[in-house]
Amino acid sequence: MALNPMEQFEVKPLIEQPLLHIAGHPIFFTNQALLMIIVTVASALFLTFAMSRRALVPSRTQSMAEMSYEFVAGMLNSAAGEDGLKFFPFVFTIFMFVLFSNFFGMIPGSFTVTSQIAVTFALASLVILTVIVVGFAKHGIGFLRLFVPHAPLPLLFLLVPIELISFLTRPISLSVRLFANMLAGHTMLAVFGGFVVLLGGAGGILSVLSLAPMALIVAIMLLELLVAFLQAYVFAILTCIYLNEALHLHDHH
Amino acid sequence: MAETPSTSETTGAPGGHEPAGFPPFKTETFPSQFFWLAVTFAFLFVVLWRVAGPRIAGTISARRGQINADLGSAQAARGDADAANGAYQTALAGAKARAQALAEANRKTITDEIDRAKAAADAKAQEDVAKAETRIAEMRVAARAEVSRAASDAAVQIVARLTGETVGTDDAAAAVRSVTGN
């Protein structure tokens, strides 16, 4: 059933026997695990070996590695300021992980790691947990002022619950945004791919008609490449913004 | 395909029937997903934190340092060039002034020499003129004396021819003098 557009999101064990059990849950080596390993090793190799010459005049790969470094550093610096830079490795890892996951998912026949709500939600929870830990470590109980905006007292009865809800829904919005974007894009590609197969197999004039969804797939592919980068960027910049709130509350930037 | 029923049931393994349900919401895959995410994310974090990040940061800051050092040495070289140019201009102006002074001195000596020579020539010419004038005056006096004697001689002769009388030369001279007025 290659025509089922949801089949590509199936997490399947590549080795039938579970590798180990954690608290009674079997851990399998899955197609997703393989892609995660490829993604992390590829980005680690890219960022390490592109810099192996440490040339003053960089090669193309080296300047790409430097560009991604300076891109994330600039993002973090402008969103969270100088003291935000100590979270650089964390934000850089998130950005590279999501970016490479999205891009490797674009390869036909591979698996999109970020199309799984479990993965995106785990990443988003990691971000929010970091924000909470940093916030309480820096401001103590004063971190709760984050939920009290500067407003007249009667309005606070309305605003504090809103702030609380918006904070608590952050892990959901952060994770669902990435997950839904990846899922929708890849589903759309699979659906149009199914049209191509069906029309092409029908024979006659319908085979010629199959070129239309084919062209559409090419266009959507380009769009999806943009979305792949954009979603990694959005995830990273929101991480920066949330970290900034933890560091500076609402006071200053 | 010797798979146990429990495996295909819990993981939705491929093979027989298409597993029902929305794949990302199959909670039985979550433990594996969380496990591998934790392992790979931690791996990437450590690599970027300990290896790649410092390496890239080092290269970028080394380049920035190199550029700044190069800019500094270029600035210094420009300062040196400016100083050399200044020194050259000063030396040039000094040489020019010296040359001018030398030329001026030369001109002065030459003018002086010319003036001296002119003065000497003038003096000699004046002297010559004076000498010549003296001679002319002498010659004039002599000529005048000659003319007077000739006139008195002529007068003596004329008187002798006309009257037959002999007139003394002194008388003739006096007569001539009374006529000419000197």
Topology (SSEs and partners):
The complex is a heterodimer of chains A (253) and B (182).
Chain A: E1 20-22, E2 25-27, H1 31-49, H2 60-80, H3 88-105, H4 117-139, H5 153-168, H6 170-202, H7 205-209, H8 211-248
Antiparallel strand pairs in A: 1-2
Helix pairs in contact in A: 1-3, 2-3, 2-8, 3-8, 4-6, 4-8, 6-8
Chain B: H1 5-11, H2 30-163, H3 169-180
Task: Describe what you observe in this structure.
- The complex is a heterodimer of chains A (253) and B (182).
- Chain A has 253 residues and is mainly alpha-helical.
- Chain A has one domain.
- Chain A is 68% helix and 2% strand.
- Chain A is built from eight helices and two strands, in the order ββαααααααα.
- Chain A has a two-stranded antiparallel ribbon.
- In chain A, a hairpin with a 2-residue loop joins strand 1 and strand 2.
- In chain A, helix 1 packs across helix 3 and helix 4 runs parallel beside helix 8.
- The longest helix of chain A has 38 residues.
- The radius of gyration of chain A is 22 Å and the shape is globular.
- The termini of chain A are far apart.
- The mean pLDDT of chain A is 90.
- Chain B has 182 residues and is an all-alpha fold.
- In chain B, helix 2 crosses helix 3.
- Chain B starts with a helix and ends with a helix.
- Chain B contains three helices and no strands.
- Chain B has one domain.
- Chain B is rod-shaped and about 195 Å long.
- The chains are: A mainly alpha (253), B mainly alpha (182).
- At the A-B interface, strand 2, helix 1, helix 2, helix 3 and helix 4 of A face helix 1 and helix 2 of B.
